[in-house]
Amino acid sequence: MAATDVHYVRDEMAPVLPPPAASGGLLGWMRANLFSSLGNTALTLVGVLILWLLFEPLIRFALIDAVWTGANREACLGHHGACWPYVADYFSQFIYGRYPLGERWRVDIVFAAFAFGLVPLLVPSAPLKRANVIFMLVVFPVAAYFLLTGGFGMEIVETANWGGLLVTLVIAVTGIVASLPLGIVLALGRRSQMPVVRLASVVFIEFWRGVPLITVLFMSSVMLPLFLPEGVTFDKLLRALIGVALFASAYMAEVVRGGLQAIPKGQYEGAMALGLRYWQMMGLIIMPQALKMVIPGIVNTFIGLFKDTTLVLIIGLFDLLGQIQSSYTDPTWATPTQSHTGYLFAAAIYWTFCFSMSRYSIFMEKRLHTGHKR
Amino acid sequence: MSETAAMTAEAKPKMAVSETDVAIEIVGMNKWYGDFHVLKDINLKVMRGERIVVCGPSGSGKSTMIRCINRLEEHQKGDIIVDGITLTNDLKRIDEIRREVGMVFQHFNLFPHLTILENCTLAPIWVRKMPKKQAEEVAMHYLERVKIPEQALKYPGQLSGGQQQRVAIARSLCMNPRIMLFDEPTSALDPEMIKEVLDVMVGLAEEGMTMLCVTHEMGFARQVANRVIFMDAGQIVEENAPEPFFTNPQHERTQLFLSQILH
């Protein structure tokens, strides 16, 4: 047996060295990520080709071949690109629907107040959060209600005359604001120790999840009036709002329940051992963690809800998409590219809203991350 | 511990064990998980200022027993009287008991979304209705006590296991409890960190805190316990002062257990 010397004592500690410098610049990055081997180079080229095939016609249609000015269909006839003057001409109708021309300033104020309240609410470092929340949850809804419907000397505007982005936003914002708290209550109810509460929550959630939104809207607009006594009517938009809010809250409840299930038992025990009551424990310990965990799911539901608002067209409410579609019947702008242009415009608006929600949720996730960052 | 001298108003004088002052009394307690009889006829009396170490093989019911004391587990038969309050299904009484009984868990159970300071001030503010500023002073006092005041603004996820457990102890102490329950406080820690947690616990014991510890740290038991309780198969098998318990165990289960853990 060969004698090996196992005795070793380090006599100098290894020094701390700076990390290796990244192999530099755009060229270095491209070489490392796109052209590192023959196969990768081929994949990169195929990828570029696919992107080109996808986006070249879109850019050509929307920008290069597009018509930018004109007074009627004559300007766009014979062109293969988007007919933007049609969108410009109809723009205010897409936003306000058939809201009376002279009263549209009221909608503008509502939009402005909404932005004014929402932006500082979304910026974590903005001051006066409490006042801000009160403004958005109490002052704004009441003010918006009276501004939009009328009263106090303002002309009454029937909701049948509302339309376009206004209707889309009213339904989406109401649905979003109502579905989160309702969903939380339902999720807690479904996990409650009390059998009656649990059963009621399960029945509610499963009923609304088991029915398509179109059916809910149909029921609210066609069937419900049949059951109401003679002479009792309530607004079609309001019925749609309630339907959408309850529908979304059932989905929200299941998303929140997913978060609740991910909270370890130790968190409940830690909170209980300190003497916290049920609502304190839920509000201070469990919910903040559960909601943070399911932010992607919550925003997913919000985005789904936002896009589902387009379904109200089938009960005769004209949201943004409905308003755009109804403009196709106008002979002034009837051209082969009219509907393409309209749908492209609609897609751009919906995408902007949904993408913003998505980005904001990612920002919030990062901000609320409290673990050890690696 | 040198800091104990610097302790201010909250410091409790070193108390002698007095027979008249009962902190916890458990009489004929039984508990079942479904058909499984986990705790069988438990009788235990803990005096104020007494330190009791509970040991036993895993599954012997020792954790379940101390978790019954603050109603994290429900017992089905028998009586538990904590600080003169009989434990029933009455939520008000359960709250009252939980306010007076601090608990430290194996896995710390700190709230990861709150800073260390917020972890400590939460219960005093919401349960004791203490003003925030005062709660923060109390919290800093106890964080200094467990020697990590400089971590106050960090989150639990940024601390080592030993530090987290010390925060958990400080968090309990902020409620100024009269009784502390420890449920295997060092079992989830790396060997290097066990001592820093035990040091804090020894300090508490020296101040006269009533303590009920489930632990396998036999050195700790020898050093601070007034009594050692050995549990097996859901019952208390042997109970004695630490010295005779370790040197001259009577029951064969105890002998076997000790022979396996004290090598």
From TrEMBL, chain A:
Domain ABC transmembrane type-1: 165-362
Subcellular location: Cell inner membrane; Cell membrane
PROSITE patterns linked: ABC_TM1
Regions that span the bilayer: 34-55, 107-127, 133-153, 165-187, 207-228, 240-258, 278-299, 340-358
One of the record's GO molecular function terms: transmembrane transporter activity
Matches recorded under SUPFAM superfamilies: MetI-like
Keywords: Cell membrane, Membrane, Transmembrane, Transmembrane helix, Transport
Keyword Cell membrane set for record: yes
Superkingdom of origin: Bacteria
One of the GO biological process terms: amino acid transport
Topology relative to the membrane: Multi-pass membrane protein
GO (cellular component) term, any one: ATP-binding cassette (ABC) transporter complex
Family indicated by similarity: Belongs to the binding-protein-dependent transport system permease family. HisMQ subfamily.
Protein name: General L-amino acid ABC transporter membrane protein
UniProtKB/TrEMBL annotation, chain B:
Keywords: ATP-binding, Nucleotide-binding, Transport
SUPFAM superfamilies: P-loop containing nucleoside triphosphate hydrolases
Gene Ontology molecular function terms on file: ABC-type amino acid transporter activity; ATP binding; ATP hydrolysis activity
CDD domains tied to this protein: ABC_HisP_GlnQ
Occurrences of domain ABC transporter (ranges): 24-258
Family (UniProt): Belongs to the ABC transporter superfamily.
Protein name according to UniProt: General L-amino acid ABC transporter ATP-binding protein
Native species: Breoghania corrubedonensis
